[in-house]
């Protein structure tokens, strides 16, 4: 009797948790689940793929490379580095109505905005309006933090320094005369960038905040004069600046420049001849990059992207095919019932 | 017997006399009547022991050389190959006493002893000292590629328990010394079966799954940067947010795999005991070896490839619904990170065979926590407090509110998971292992309902031998059971009515076989 009492005192816990007896669901990969599952996924994917592909087909895109590599291209004279403020005209035509609203992008190729050293070269405190960093930019911006006279650069860093500065004007040729297409530059950056991430220093007028600092070496205008027509679009919350600061993930990218939404062109760009007047300032030929302009309209799935549609179709059909194969295999090698 | 089916060799090392040990052997079914030969080594000098060992070995090998294919002639195979033992078809047993063992453990004889012992199905060492117990265990450990387990209940077993790979102590009758020195301790010898066949097997199974998944998850996570290197000028730009990298292994994916490692069962405990040969994959290192590791790694690499290139294809020209672009670094990061967490969670879900409430909580909880932390870290509030530590402000909101991003995530998840699913389904159908068959059986049994299970009883194949140990010499058994020293024979028959018909059997057997011991079944 004594032994039994001692044994029960030493007995380990006998709960379901400690004795591995927890109630559980034990699913098994049975044919009844897997094969219909594959068929379902396959059919759903084919459906989505068709929808994506059809939508993508309906999106119009027009790309114009204006780098000026060939001798006969309109912007070839501007590729000479010594020419300042070069302007070139690129003519193109549209065959059918380009459905509005039309979005105007500039695109760069072979441009590695995702390079790590480039990407860390900015000062977040400066860009959120902290004046103490105006006087002493952080060392992450080097070598673009002080100029040769040891004055602080605002905004510092190579991301800001390399801001895209080509400007474009679009004209439609109507009866031999140029008719300007108005471009809308409001709201092209993310709302969170404009309102929260980047803040101007709270000094009015803005120009005074920049006393004792210099503009980035590559810029032609200082930050507080980026947009003379709209006072709310200056400083660090300039829309073009914000679009540029949102670094691209891949070496060939596009960034939104303007929208064509009002006036006569609210319904889209009608068929006809057009001229694009480019103020060619941004040099890309030294590293084999290319510049282009892209006109596009959008849909519920974004811009024209045939990859997704095709991928869904391919995967959907493969799933259906796999389910047929598995059905055949299952029918031939039925699971043995007894051990 | 059950452990024997699981390919576990059992050696008995006892301090008892030879006869006692042999009787115990017969009663436990380790020594059987139908064994070809029971070798008893009881020499007194080194030479005698050597001679006995050699002759026993030649006896075994001589007979088997005739019967087997003839590939047992190489002498150098004796040293390591355990496959060699399986070519021996007949069953032998070896009984050696402590005195001879002392000689046999000398360096020149220990290989012979080991080879002979491994050729035999059962080895019983009697009259061994504690030191010799440890020496025998060490002999096996050193020269064989086997894992040794020593179980004992007294202080004299402590050295043996310490020497073996796994030491098991029985706590109770003879005090706690054995239990204190051991890795595992329980109260009765019979629990060893459960320890090995149920918990040991589960432990191996869980450990292998855990390791495989861990390697897969980390390869999938890390190699995305390898692919990205080709597109970012090899500048070591990370694809993910810094916080994601920190939290991925700690918060987002650690708990589900922990739950799997604690609770997963492929076959429930009754079936583990019923089919001891399920234990074999553990012995043969089948579930996690170089090949399995390579497959895990390959799967991780393939997943990382898909995780990168599908968003790459989708993002190269993508824009948001309102036209503004979002093929930027941060949105790309959030998309890939979300896909990765979802793929990892789905994968652990597919590999968990036994979903307890804890598993459910951890898996779904991890996903929820991921999204919660994602939105919290990229919210305005966090940015307000630490501007330069949370540069991803606003990305999650802008990125995950786009339908195309969710389509990309869905596609990536399905493409990463579906091949593995198809392969495992086909493997189970085309090459089912014993585990798969037992699991299938388990599931059909569960569906049939519990009342039908009672009809399928395991048939006991052991012959009913005694629960008594008798001395080898003709003792008093005959005298007692013949009833001569009882007062009236009717009283004895009234007390145990079953005994009388068997007693005549016993006497007959006793008269027939003089050298063997037969006992009455009770």
Name its key features.
heterodimer, A: 339 residues, alpha+beta, 2 domains, 4-stranded antiparallel beta sheet, 10 helices, 29% helix, 19% strand, B: 522 residues, alpha/beta, 4-stranded parallel beta sheet, 3-stranded parallel beta sheet, 24 helices, 8 strands, elongated, disordered C terminus, Cell cycle control protein (chain A)
What is the average per-residue confidence, as pLDDT of chain A, rounded to a whole number?
86
Name the strands of the widest sheet of chain B in spatial order. 1-4-3-2
Question: What radius of gyration of chain A results from the CA coordinates?
Answer: 30 Å
Mean pLDDT of chain B: 78
Biggest interface between chains: A-B, 81 and 83 residues
How much strand content do the residues of chain B show?
5-15%
Overall tally of structural domains of chain B: 2
Please describe the biggest sheet of chain A, giving its number of strands, its sense, and whether it closes into a barrel: 4 strands, antiparallel
Main beta sheet strand tally, sense and closure of chain B: 4 strands, parallel
State the helix count of chain B: 24
Q: From the helix content, strand content and strand pairing of chain B, which structural class follows? A: alpha/beta
Quaternary organisation of the protein chains: heterodimer
How many distinct beta strands of chain B?
8
Alpha plus pi helix count of chain A: 10
- What string, H for helix and E for strand, traces the elements of chain A in order? HEHEEEEHHHHEEHHHEEEEH
Q: Which percent bin holds the helix content of chain A?
A: 25-40%
């Amino acid at each position: 009797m004594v032994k039994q009492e001692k044994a029960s005192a030493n007995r380990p816990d006998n709960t379901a948790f400690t004795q591995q007896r927890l109630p559980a669901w034990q699913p098994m990969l049975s044919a009844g689940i897997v094969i219909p599952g594959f068929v379902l996924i396959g059919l759903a994917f084919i459906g989505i793929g068709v929808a994506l592909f059809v939508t993508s087909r309906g999106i119009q895109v027009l790309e114009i490379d204006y780098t000026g590599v060939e001798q006969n291209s309109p912007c070839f004279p501007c590729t000479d580095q010594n020419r300042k403020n070069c302007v070139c005209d690129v003519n193109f035509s549209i065959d059918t109505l380009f459905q509005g609203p039309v979005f105007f992008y500039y695109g760069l190729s072979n441009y590695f905005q995702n390079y790590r050293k480039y990407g860390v070269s900015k000062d977040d405190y400066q860009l959120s309006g902290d004046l103490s960093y105006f006087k002493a930019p952080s060392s992450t911006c080097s070598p673009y933090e002080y100029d040769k006279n040891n004055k602080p650069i605002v905004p510092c860093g190579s991301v800001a320094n390399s801001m895209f500065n080509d400007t474009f004007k679009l004209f439609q040729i109507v009866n031999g005369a140029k008719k300007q297409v108005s471009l809308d530059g409001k709201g092209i950056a993310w709302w969170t960038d404009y309102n929260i991430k980047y803040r101007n220093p709270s000094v009015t007028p803005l120009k005074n905040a920049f006393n004792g600092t210099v503009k980035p070496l590559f810029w032609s205008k200082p930050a507080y004069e980026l947009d003379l027509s709209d006072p709310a679009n200056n400083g660090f919350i300039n829309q073009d600046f914000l679009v540029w600061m949102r670094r691209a993930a891949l070496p060939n990218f596009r960034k939104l420049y303007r929208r064509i939404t009002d006036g006569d062109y609210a319904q889209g760009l009608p068929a006809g001849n057009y001229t694009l007047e480019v103020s060619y300032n941004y040099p890309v030929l030294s590293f084999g990059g290319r510049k282009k302009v892209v006109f596009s309209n959008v849909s519920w799935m974004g811009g024209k992207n045939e990859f997704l549609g095709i991928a869904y179709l391919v995967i959907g059909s493969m799933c259906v095919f796999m389910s047929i194969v598995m059905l055949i295999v299952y029918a031939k090698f039925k699971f043995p019932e007894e051990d | 017997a059950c452990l024997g089916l699981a390919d576990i060799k059992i050696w008995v090392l006892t301090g008892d006399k030879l006869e006692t040990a042999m009787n115990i052997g017969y009663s436990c079914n380790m020594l059987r009547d139908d064994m070809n030969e029971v070798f008893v080594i009881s020499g007194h000098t080194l030479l005698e022991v050597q001679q006995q060992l050699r002759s026993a070995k030649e006896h075994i090998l001589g007979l088997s050389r005739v019967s087997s294919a003839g590939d047992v002639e190489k002498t150098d195979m004796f040293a390591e190959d355990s496959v060699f033992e399986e070519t021996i078809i007949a069953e032998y047993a070896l009984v050696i006493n402590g005195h001879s063992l002392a000689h046999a453990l000398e360096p020149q004889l220990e290989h012979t002893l080991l080879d002979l012992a491994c050729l035999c199905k059962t080895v019983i060492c009697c009259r061994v000292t504690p030191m010799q117990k440890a020496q025998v265990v060490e002999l096996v450990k050193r020269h064989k590629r086997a894992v040794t387990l020593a179980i004992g209940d007294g202080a004299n077993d402590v050295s043996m328990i310490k020497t073996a790979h796994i030491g098991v102590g029985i706590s109770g009758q003879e005090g706690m010394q054995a239990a204190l020195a051991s890795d595992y301790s329980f109260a009765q010898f019979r629990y060893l079966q459960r320890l090995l066949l149920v918990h040991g097997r589960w432990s191996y199974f869980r450990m292998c799954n855990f390791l495989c998944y861990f390697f897969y998850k980390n390869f999938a996570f890390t190699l995305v940067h390898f692919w990205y290197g080709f597109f970012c000028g090899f500048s070591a730009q990370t694809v993910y947010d810094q916080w994601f990298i920190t939290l991925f292994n700690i918060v987002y994916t650690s708990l589900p795999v922990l739950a799997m490692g604690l609770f997963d069962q492929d076959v429930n405990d009754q079936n583990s005991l019923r089919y001891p040969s399920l234990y074999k994959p553990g012995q043969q290192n089948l579930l996690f070896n170089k090949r399995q590791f390579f497959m895990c790694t390959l799967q991780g690499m393939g997943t990382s490839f898909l995780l990168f290139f599908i968003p790459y294809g989708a993002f190269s020209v993508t824009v948001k619904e309102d036209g503004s672009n979002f093929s930027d670094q941060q949105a790309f990061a959030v998309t890939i990170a979300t896909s990765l967490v979802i793929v990892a969670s789905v994968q652990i879900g597919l590999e968990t065979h036994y979903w307890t409430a804890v598993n459910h909580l951890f898996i779904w909880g991890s996903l929820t926590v991921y999204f919660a932390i994602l939105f919290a870290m990229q919210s305005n509030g966090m940015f307000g407090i630490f501007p330069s530590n949370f540069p991803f402000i606003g990305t999650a909101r802008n990125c995950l509110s786009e339908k195309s991003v969710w389509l990309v995530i869905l596609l990536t998840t399905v493409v990463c998971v579906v091949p593995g699913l198809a392969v495992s389904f086909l493997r189970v159908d085309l090459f089912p292992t014993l585990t798969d068959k037992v699991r299938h059986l388990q599931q059909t049994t569960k569906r049939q309902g519990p009342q039908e299970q009672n009809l399928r009883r395991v048939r006991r194949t052991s012959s009913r031998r005694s629960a008594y140990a008798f001395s080898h010499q003709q003792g008093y058994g005959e005298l007692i059971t013949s009833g001569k020293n009882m007062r009236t024979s009717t009283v004895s028959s009234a007390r145990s009515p079953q005994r009388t018909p068997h007693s005549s059997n016993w006497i007959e057997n006793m008269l027939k076989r003089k050298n063997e011991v037969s006992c009455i079944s009770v």
